[in-house]
Amino acid sequence: MCRRFAISWVLLLLALPGAARTRPHYGGTLRVEIEGDPWQKPNGIARPLVFDGLTARDSDGMVRPALATEWASADGDHRWQFHLRPGVRFHDGTPLTATNAAAALNVACPAHCPWSAIQPVGAWLVFTGDAPMPNLPALLAGDEFLIMLTMGGEGKTPNPDVGTGPFQVSTFANGALALTANENCWQGRPFVDAIEIRAHRSIHDQWLDLGVGRADLAEVPAEMVRQAQQQRLTVIASPSAELLALQESDTGALANPQIRTAIAAAVDRSALSNVIFQKQGEVTGSLLPQAVTGLGFLFPTDRDLNRAHELRGGLTVPPLALSTDGDGAMQLAAQRIALNLREAGFNVQTGNALRPDLELRKLPLAVASPPAVLDELLRSAGQPSPAASGADLASLFKAEREVLDRHTLVPLLDLPRAYAVGVRLRDLRIGADGLPNLADVSLEDAP
Q1: How far apart are CA 293 and CA 291, in angstroms?
Q2: Secondary structure letter of residue 430 according to DSSP
Q3: Helix (H) or strand (E) holding 218
Q4: 84 by DSSP, 3-state: which?
Q5: In the chain, at which end, N or C, are there fewer CB atoms within 10 A of the end residue's CB?
Q6: How far apart, in Å, are the Cα atoms of 81 and each of 54, 103, 157?
Q7: 163-177: per-residue pLDDT in tens?
Q8: 416 and 257 Cβ atoms separated by less than 8 Å
Q9: Are 381 and 245 in contact, with CB atoms under 8 Å apart?
């Protein structure tokens, strides 16, 4: 299974003519444009450039050391010890210690954490939990647990943009974020001198700037990959990095599990894939991708409108509010789902309700082992994880089945992340989280 999982996260290397024979150049400014906020959680493009975690993921999704050099568990995974890398400093010169690392993690996760307590002991961080934490090293590689400076020395107020990563913040004004290379980064100095990230740029403007040489990297939404290719853009895409899912409340109008089951049966995944997302990604009825476990085919994906009608029966269901955490294709997908549910006899309205009954969301598929993928995905959805079990296929199937039988999370599509790349950019790889690894790129025309 590990081999199957590793293969599913194959490195995606942009190999432009002559790049394999040319050593990377130091210098230059990389120009990036995005639609959203570079600091957004999870997986804002600036976050892994400025901050590090105790652990990290390789491009194949495997956990490797980062700010922690080693770790070990005890007491049936109820206790973990992580040894901090010596000599690491934050961008402002503050040494990384177990005390300020613990403080950062307590700020990052003030409640409902995978652990019960963190204790700094010398150069070690000790995590203890009321329940076993078998996936803790993989979870700590996630965006949620990146380390930022939260304790100011000598009475100073800490700057929340200060981390230990390969780039440090220079300025952030008028939607433009300027990052400069961290000369003393523990990982070594990055190749480019600076990165300029222009936020809140429409896809049209991003592609226009890329075409005329004003940008080196632009976003390509999954539903626009074919359009980008038709426009002769050089596009690279990740494997499945996000799960499109419909989250159902289990209170109020949807407290009855029979109603939640009817809603799940009424959704037409194929229409979402073919019409809205232009056949990018894969239709799924499972939480974990087929490429991760090989079990995806065991979970049905076909719409069953007759069963939805039978389950709803004569039950009276109040009007339902459906919201989404995105725009563009996400809004269109929400409208398509609302239409599906109306055909099943539900009164559904889309919009930004304060307490929606249904939410269309994208959830991360980015950690190393299948149990850890499931654990992080459910944490992101605010849903309880199933009882801890092994990583064998039978245990994974049982865990997924347990979650899906609640009918509070309905998997719909596994989606990639994609980017359009300019002619100057060399050695770009896509991480396991679908983000471009900009710390290792170089520019062809750098001095």
Answers
A1: 6
A2: B
A3: strand 217-220
A4: strand
A5: C
A6: 11, 16, 29
A7: 999 999 999 988 899
A8: no
A9: yes
Query: Is 409 exposed, middle or buried (CB count within 10 Å of its CB: 0-12, 13-18, 19+)?
Result: buried
Residue with tokens 């226009």: 208
Q: Residue 148's CB: how many other CB atoms inside 10 A?
A: 22
CATH code for 1-50+165-239+417-447?
3.40.190.10
Backbone CA torsion sign across 300, 412, 406, 116:
positive
As given in the structure block, the two tokens for residue 192 are 């480019």
The pair of three-digit structure tokens given for residue 54, joined into one six-digit string: 């105790």
With tokens 């269901």, the residue in question is: 317
How confident is the model at residue 51, as a pLDDT?
97
Q: What span, in angstroms and rounded, lies between the C-alpha atoms of 40 and 198?
A: 14
Could you give the CA distance from residue 137 to residue 84 in angstroms, rounded to a whole number? 13
What span, in angstroms and rounded, lies between the C-alpha atoms of 39 and 61?
Answer: 22
pLDDT of 439: 93
Any residues with CB less than 8 A from the CB of 317 and at least 6 apart, and which?
253, 259, 346, 347
For the chain, where do the domains classified as CATH 3.10.105.10 start and end?
Answer: 242-415
Q: What is the mean pLDDT of the chain?
A: 89
Residue type, position 189, single letter? R
Helices (H), 344-418: 370-380, 393-404
What pLDDT was estimated at residue 21?
44
Model pLDDT, residue 23:
67
Question: Three-class SS string for 246-283?
Answer: EEECCCHHHCCHHHHHHHHHHCCHHHHHHHHCCCCCEE
Residues of the chain with CATH 3.40.190.10: 1-50+165-239+417-447
What is the per-residue pLDDT for 61?
A: 76
**Burial track 48-61 (b if 16+ CB lie within 10 A, e otherwise):** bbbbbbbbbbbbeb
Chain centre to alpha carbon of residue 216: 23
What would the two tokens of residue 311 be?
A: 């389950």
- Give the predicted TM-score (pTM) of the model: 0.87
Residue 205 C-alpha from the chain's centroid: 25
Distances (CA, A) of 284 to 49, 273, 392: 32, 10, 21
**Measured between alpha carbons, how far is residue 167 from residues 90, 97, 164, 232, 366 in Å?**
11, 20, 8, 32, 23
CATH for 242-415 is: 3.10.105.10
